[in-house]
Amino acid sequence: MTDVTTQFVNFKEDGPFRLRSGGELPEVTIAYETWGKLNADASNAVLVLHALSGSHHAAGHNPEIPGVGDLWQPELHEGWWGNTIGPGRALDTDKQFVICANYLGGCYGSTGPGSTDPRTGKPYGGSFPHVTAADQVDFLVRLLDHLGIDALHAVVGPSVGGLVALSLATMHPERVRHVISIASGFKTTVLNRLILFEQILAIENDPFFNGGDYYDNGRPAYGLALARMISHKTFVHIDAFERRARREVVPEKEMLAWYDVRDQFQSYMLAQGKKFVKRFDPNTYLRIIDMWSHFDAAAEGGAASPGDLLERCRAVDQKWLVFSIDSDFCFYPEEQAELVGHLHEAGVDATHITVHSDKGHDSFLLEPHLYAPHIQWVLSR
Fold it and tell me: Phi then psi for 9, rounded to 5 degrees?
């Protein structure tokens, strides 16, 4: 893929951005990238929604994002879904106009806790409000309006992005024709809420966290590294984990004083945590996992029940494609089965595909050939 440049749109003139928590932001900026060309009637737009620690840079090469600084590490310069977005690929940029935006609360250009609060001249920090999937939908709709897109040909959401895709499709059903949900769910499980709570505690209890106001005195690196280690176990299947871990043990004295790292698996996990700290903001991590922890599609959409919510999709004849990964420990296949069950009960046209993989949740990033034929079929309907 060729070089791509991040674009920004500021909505200062639209007035304060109000969130479901009751908080408000005096203005918001959205960072996004696009691939392909929007056709004359704006009917070929596909919106891609990124996962927990992803970004709007989904394809191509981007060596720098203005204002992001050291967080934009070299490992991020190549788009995270470049094997899926491009000419002739699953999201074919010869046919589709593909858009991906950094979430509200993000750390890669959109307004987030590290952004300057125009009311104080300092970073928002801990004062940045709680964000829900419904807030993300409001945020993204502003971008679609700015781009002149009344209805998306499709919204594609892997992982946490699938939660936002579901909310967009049900809050604004008339604006979405096809929904592609990959390894996601309908409502966050108790197990995931507990795993996410462990990560919140890890960051909150870092001595540098300071209630989220740490931008002048050092980031809570240990807490974020530990949070990433907790989550990483759910992203990678244990077989793949064992293959990835190096055979040698790397001594660790920076994060450990008494304990000695004893095997290559501990060494691998520490390396993952330390690498992540360099490229992500702890406050952003907290906002996104808080959004995930409390996700309930019916509640986000203001519906009394799943049936009432998804009736909106049936009414506009939306088409759904839902992927499960049989080795997924993050969003278990039962979660997609629940989603598809609700869709079928509501009379929505939904196809459910189970991907057989030994790579766990990360399969959607690593094995495009398992998804591409089904995605291409849906987008050509």
Answer: -135, 130
Q: State the average pLDDT over residues 205-233.
A: 96
Domain 192-288 has CATH 1.10.1740.110: yes
* Cα→Cα distances 73→108, 277, 283, Å: 11, 11, 18
The pLDDT of residue 54 is: 96
Q: What is the CATH number of domain 7-188+295-379?
A: 3.40.50.1820
Contact 228, 196 (CB under 8 A): no
The active-site residue, picked from 159, 267, 357, 363, is 159
Catalytic site residue 206?
Answer: no
* Averaged confidence pLDDT in the chain: 95
Is 328 in the active site?
A: yes
The one-letter code for the residue type at 319 is K
Residue 128: predicted pLDDT: 98
pLDDT computed for residue 1 by the predictor = 58
Told to judge if 43 belongs to the known catalytic residues of this protein, a careful annotator would answer no
pLDDT tens for 98-111 read: 999 999 999 999 99
- The yes-or-no verdict on residue 248 having pLDDT over 80 is no
Tell me, yes or no, if the two domains 7-188+295-379 and 192-288 fold the same way. Answer: no
CA distance 374 to 194: 33
Domain ranges of the chain: 7-188+295-379, 192-288
